[in-house]
Amino acid sequence: MPVLQTPDGTTLYHEVTGKGDPIVFVHEFGGDYRSWYRQISELSRSFCCITFSARGFLPSDIPSNRSQYGQEQSTGDLLALLDHLNIEAAHLVGTSMGSFTSLDFSLNHPDRVLSVTLVGNSSGPRDADERENYRKTWVGHELQLREDRGGDGAVAVLEDDTAYQSFQKDDPEGWSTYAANLRDQSPEGAVHVLSTLHWNRRSLFDDVARLKAFDKPVMLVTGDDDYYLVGETNAFLNDVLSDVRWHRFPATGHLVNIERAEAFNSQLAEFVGKQE
Prior knowledge:
Blueprint: E1 3-5, E2 11-17, E3 22-26, H1 37-43, E4 48-52, H2 71-84, E5 90-95, H3 97-108, E6 113-119, H4 128-159, H5 165-170, H6 172-183, H7 187-198, H8 208-213, E7 218-223, H9 228-240, E8 244-249, H10 256-259, H11 261-274
Parallel strand pairs: 3-4, 3-5, 5-6, 6-7, 7-8
Antiparallel strand pairs: 1-2, 2-4
């Protein structure tokens, strides 16, 4: 099993498929390295495609110490992956939680980035009132379900989520596979990630200076049926980033790369190919 060990001793599972310029895919909270199967089958014909499971997500390690989780650790894991594979710079593609980590990595290590594609990215709360609401109505609610019902609770959250309705309606077979993978996640790992990385997510709106200074190509990707904050965040990023393009998908929810894989793959291949 291909693994690497991070500086704090956490073991991360990863896969490398294909040859060419490297693309590192960074998964969402509801997924793992398998979330990108519709991209790898197509894009590995032209690119070196790298997937991995973040700490807290099987088959990577599930550290029992909560201090080993958080945005700093997740960003550091991405750096450790590039170093382990001797990759000087890569194209980063992230969805949701993975898009926030991809952007955070890019701002902290711009010399290691060729381009960034952000799918369903959203900022953390912008003020104390937003933070209280965010922690109470989203993070706190999901934490309770994960602690009480484990994987079944994780699936229940998304089954009722408006941003996942188009996926369930348009692709019931794909949704069934996704839900089965989600159900098998480590409940302990999920609770640790929710309690740290998500609980303390910072506001991108407070990072204007670094965002304006970032000069690598960025592609924003959103579904029109996604959360309102995704639209607000991407409108903000579209205004402040210097080299940016924004693709919106109608009648599509949070997981554009899965729901609209063919169109997404075409746009990603074109975008990445232009940077060669």
